[in-house]
Structures are given as structure tokens and as C-alpha cells.
Amino acid sequence: xxxxxxxxxxxxxxxxxxxxxxxxxxxxxxxxxxxxxxxxxxxxxxxxxxxxxxxxxxxxxxxxxxxxxxxxxxxxxxxxxxxxxxxxxxxxxxxxxxxxxxxxxxxxxxxxxxxxxxxxxxxxxxxxxxxxxxxxxxxxxxxxxxxxxxxxxxxxxxxxxxxxxxxxxxxxxxxxxxxxxxxxxxxxxxxxxxxxxxxxxxxxxxxxxxxxxxxxxxxxxxxxxxxxxxxxxxxxxxxxxxxxxxxxxxxxxxxxxxxxxxxxxxxxxxxxxxxxxxxxxxxxxxxxxxxxxxxxxxxxxxxxxxxxxxxxxxxxxxxxxxxxxxxxxxxxxxxxxxxxxxxxxxxxxxxxxxxxxxxxxxxxxxxxxxxxxxxxxxxxxxxxxxxxxxxxxxxxxxxxxxxxxxxxxxxxxxxxxxxxxxxxxxxx
Length: 428
Prior knowledge:
By secondary structure, this protein is an alpha/beta fold. Helix content is 33%, strand content 21%. It has two domains: 2-81 and 391-426, Urease, subunit C, domain 1 (Roll), CATH 2.30.40.10; 82-383, Metal-dependent hydrolases (TIM Barrel, Alpha-Beta Barrel). The protein contains twelve helices and 16 strands. Strand 1 (26-36) and strand 2 (41-51) form a beta hairpin. Helix 10 crosses helix 11 (368-374). The longest helix is centred in the last third of the chain and has 24 residues, at 313-336.
């Protein structure tokens, strides 16, 4: 296996530019059963040709050129790499200490982000939407390090820091008296629509791909309440407009029903959590084409580990008040045909265990195929990356996973990913 990994690394990495272009890197994957989520088709005994990291052909298996690099997954189920559209790679895990983000240097946090990125990729998640780090450029720098090849990790759509009101759901709160939050952790704090515009522009100047708004209070932020609106309609609209000038978009953390509807009305592409969504909000999401990113596993982790480790009573109360209602809303949204995206809030719970959410999505109303689509083709559309990821049709990156059993029959198979390829590099 080590020799195979080394061969792939050599094949996928080219040296300095020379007068004669290097030969194309070509890999042939023999897929026993190929699941194409965009169509729901399962094709047996397929050849997937990957040229310079992108799929160049998918066809019935046949003899390949002598000496070609072949990946033999002929006894396995193969599908596109998974997408988690709500992670926090470039921070420490949630703990009982509200001051945790301030207790670690930028350097220590960066090393941890690299470890989190590798764990996520090895679990089969080849693309993520990193929806915020307390240090505004943390996830941006991690993305760039991965793209340079310095760090092993998934493709990242990074938001930088959070757009939030002072003391709001995107702030570090509940600190001991005298402890001060450093400026690099408050880059997105804004009070007016004009300030929102300036802060959004600042995040794009830092290299953000998209923008995350904290439209309501948060479960895990002390002193805020999930049902309370924090960003006004004009502030949300200002962020949407500013992002559009950069050819981009915004998604909104919104738990409360009123905040969800305000974000939808003012142009937010996505709603994160949507814990207390009501029937009107579901209908609005459907009519506006708004994506819901609902972390329906996370509440059980918070309830169990939070009580075990002594998290604050207010956090545990807010989690209890939102978990079951979020799942009821999820079921209604599935039935209504709303666009639902796989997003877990990994970073609250350990990275690399993201796939635990699949069985919850099925338990609360999805078919296994719908859950897989939420983490592939639908998530790719949400990111605006449908021409790059979420499918194994020609032109897409050669990001794929191999499983020993059929996830369409038992979605928990996705918790046991055997092999991972990103581009033409065999990661696992």
C-alpha cells in the first residue's frame, strides 16, 4: 500500500515548468458498482478514467493500455466523494470552557486544523464548506495550504470569520472578567448595514469564498438565545448585495422561525441549523429555492457529551429545546421537497465522524439515496460547485470513495469508507 501511495503521489505531482509539457497523469479505476447520485443510477463493472485529476470517461470495463495505473475496486461500491457543508476545521473542539478559543495560539490552532482536515478527508469527505473560524483567516489559510499541497485535506469553500452583532452568536462570550477577545477574532462584528458591507468586503479581501451570517442567537454561545433575531433585514440584505459584487453568496445561521424567514426574504442562499423552522418557513424555503443545512445528529452528541463533561446549563437547556423540534422540521422539509444539504457542525463533535449523521437523515424521513444526494449532488449545487464535485461524470474532479457494502441498502456503510481518492491521488 505504501508503494501504491507513493506511486500516486509521483503521478499526480509535477515538477517545475519545462519547455515540453509533462505527460498527462492517467488513472483507471475499476468500479464493481458505480453509484451516480445525480441520476440515482447504479452501473456495474465500470471503468472510470481520471486524467490530470478530472474524470475524462465513464464506460463499461474493458482492457486498458499495458502498463497503465489501475485501481482495482472491482468488488466494491464506488461513488463520488462526500461533501459536508457545515464544518469548523480550523478551531479546537467545543468544551465546557467558554474561553477555549483564546487558550491556544494561532500556530497551535493551525496544526490542529491540519489534523482535522486529514481526518475529514480520510473519512471520505473530499469537499467541505468551512463555515467559520474564530480567527477570521484560519479556514482560508488552511484551504490555501491544502491547495498548495502543504497539508492533506479536502477541498474547502471557506467563509473566513462570522458576520455577527457585538455579543452575538458569532462572538466569544461568557469569558472571565478581564479576559479580552483579540481583534483577529472580531473581524466580522458589525452594527449597521454599512458596517456589514465593509466587513463582507474585508473577508473577501482576506480570501473568503462565501459569507456566513449569524442571523439569530446560538445554542453554543453564552448569553444568546436561538429564537432571537440578531441581524436585521437590511443588514442581511447588505451582506447579500456585497457578496454578489464579488460573484458570491451568503448562508445564514438561523435557529428561530422569525430569523429563518427574515434571512430567506433578504436573499440568503442557505439556512444553517433551521432548528425552529415553522410551516411558513418551510413553504418559503421551497418557493425561494433556499437550501436548508440541518445538523440533525449534533443534538444527541451535545446532550451526551455536554452532560458528561459539564457544559453549561444554559447550553444544555438550549440544545434540549431545539433538538427534537429541528428533527420534526427536517421531516416536514423532506416531505415538502425542500432542498436539504448534508451539514453536520463537525468541530462541535470530532472531525472524521461526520458520516454518523446519515442514519439520522434516513431515520427522520429521507431515503438512503436522498441522504447521499444531500452529501453529493445537492451539496455541490449549494456551493455553486456542481461542475467540479458531487458527481463522477466527465469534467468533475476524480474525487471518489469505495465501500465494501451497498449504502443504498444500508446507509451506515458510509461510516466505514474503505478507500478515498482525491483528484488522482489515492488518500486511503
